[in-house]
Amino acid sequence: MFKALVIAYYYPPMGLSGVQRTLKFTKYMSRYNWEPTVITTGETAYYAHDISLLEEVNNANINVLRTGALDVNSVLAKYGTVKMPNEKLRKFLSKISKTFFIPDNKVSWSHRAYQLAVEQIKKEKYDVIFVSIPPFSSFTTAKRLKAEFDIPLIVDYRDLWYGNHFAYYPTPYHRIQHKKLEDSALRSADHIIAVNRLVKEKLISTYKFLNFEDITIIPHGFDPQDFEGIEPEKNESLKRKMKILYSGIFYENITPEYFLKAFKLLTIENPEIAENIELHFAGHFRRENEQLVNKLRLHRFIHNHGYLNHKDVVRKLLSADLLWVMLGEGYNMSMVSLGKIFEYFGSKKPVLVCAPEGATRMAAKEYGSAYFAEPRDIKGIKERLISIHEDFVSNNFPPYDEEFISKHNRDILTQQLTKQFQFFIRD
């Protein structure tokens, strides 16, 4: 067995989609003769915790080392799972944080992770260091480890660093520092994993010392084991209505506002169709969105299930007729690959994609069973709902591409990752 030291801030028992990619990589590494040791957070305050994901870690016998720090999540750990604040307040606090912390407010944790990694490397021999970003400060930590111990370093870009779609640079100094830090970290990396082609192209165009061979694309995926033994919920109603499900949270420009306004328009112009539709939400719906529902008088169409553990989310996916994903317009949003849409693909359900042209749309087009609308086009979303309902009634949803789905099996994606590890093994 070869050994990989994995640095990942977001890891179970934290919930939400940010933990899934690294969790599944580490779960399946042992199948390909790689033994992961994961350095991650200790107890934290966070918007979601999922014990079922932690059980998955334990069942895979993954060696996990945890450390707290002085980052906000660790300091507030005694509060456990916390509510997401009002979006205006959350954005304000985010800007304050990005003003005073470069590259991010996880620098304290990343320093503790470095110290823990040094202790571990002195005790055991590791063949690679694998770091998942964001947070970007963990990449600078991995760079220090590479310099000190000369262990091959592989970095996984779940999102862009410089030019990130939610980046905030209050001064030219901030912009320069972020790019300088990323430049230095990338020069230390032996190989780069990118979540999609657009991220790869952006990195190559921004940092001229990178070439095509330096970056391998490994997309998001789904785990077939998550669907094993999960039965859809029984429909107890006399008339089977079309169930539309959104799984996840809303934040920044990812909002249900335009979809809900489109559905309100549907209730006015095509009430007979609206009456045959249920809108389901699994995740943090937020108070301001509940207020919007009340303002639009849509509460009788809404089924808000709150945050669910992962198994229950999968059950909701399998029980729905249509899965909806939303990605707002904005700077570099085209490069975002939403992780949860790949789990949608794994359910083999039709999807409605309200997103700008880019990585998320491209993946849905390859999947096949997909409908599209611009994220803020209220009338366009309403018209799309009408055509989807027609397909629902006639049982004529577009077919999905089985080959495309099979390529995004988490097991297969982990095999691709470990093949990259193999190139850097030293005697």
How would you summarize the topology of this molecule?
Layout: E1 2-7, H1 20-28, E2 34-41, H2 51-59, E3 63-67, H3 72-75, H4 87-100, H5 107-123, E4 128-133, H6 137-149, E5 153-157, H7 172-188, E6 191-194, H8 197-206, E7 215-217, E8 242-247, H9 257-269, H10 271-274, E9 277-282, H11 287-296, E10 302-304, H12 310-319, E11 322-326, H13 339-347, E12 351-354, H14 359-367, E13 370-373, H15 378-393, H16 402-407, H17 410-422
Helix pairs in contact: 1-17, 5-6, 6-7, 9-11, 9-15
Provide an overview of this structure.
The chain is α/β, with parallel strands linked by helices and 427 residues long. It has 2 domains: 2-221 and 409-422, 3-Layer(aba) Sandwich (Rossmann fold); 225-407, Glycogen Phosphorylase B (Rossmann fold, 3-Layer(aba) Sandwich). Helices cover 43% and strands 15% of the residues. The protein has 17 helices and 13 strands. The protein has helices spanning 20-28, 51-59, 72-75, 87-100, 107-123, 137-149, 172-188, 197-206, 257-269, 271-274, 287-296, 310-319, 339-347, 359-367, 378-393, 402-407, 410-422, and strands spanning 2-7, 34-41, 63-67, 128-133, 153-157, 191-194, 215-217, 242-247, 277-282, 302-304, 322-326, 351-354, 370-373. The strands form 2 sheets. The protein has a 7-stranded parallel β-sheet with strand order 3-2-1-4-5-6-7, with helices on both faces. Strand 9, helix 11 (287-296) and strand 10 (302-304) form a beta-alpha-beta unit. Helix 1 (20-28) packs across helix 17 (410-422). The longest helix has 17 residues, at 107-123. The chain is globular. It starts with a strand and ends in a 5-residue tail after the last helix. The mean pLDDT is 95.
